[in-house]
Write a structure and sequence with these properties.
25% helix; 103 residues; 2 helices
């Protein structure tokens, strides 16, 4: 089992997400954090931003995070024009279904 350690920007404690494999995608890690912290309803208007603790470089949604890494998590507001989140595939599927019905 591999793991990634994460800490919210304002939190004191470090949490751990375990997974199989050598790395985890940013989208899968966001989904796992939301499930572990039971933040589903709270994330309606927010997204998670993951960054490296040493350099504070922000991970892109397409990046892969190696096992045994540490990340800093920040909750950020979702931009009104772009409400799609990479980790929320049900929301993306629903929006494409709705747009195809309008045509």
């Amino acid at each position: 089992m591999s793991c990634v350690h994460y800490k919210f920007k304002s939190a004191v404690n470090v949490e751990t997400i375990t997974f199989d494999g050598m790395h985890i995608s940013v989208a899968d890690l966001k989904k796992a954090i939301i499930q572990q912290k039971k933040m589903g309803k709270l994330m309606e208007n927010f997204d998670l931003q993951l960054s490296k603790p040493q350099s504070f470089d922000v991970y892109k949604d397409t990046d892969l995070i190696p096992k045994n890494s540490s990340v800093i998590v920040a909750r950020i507001p979702v931009e009104r024009a772009n409400k799609s989140r990479s980790w929320d595939s049900s929301r993306i599927d629903m929006s494409t279904a709705l747009s195809s019905q309008k045509v």
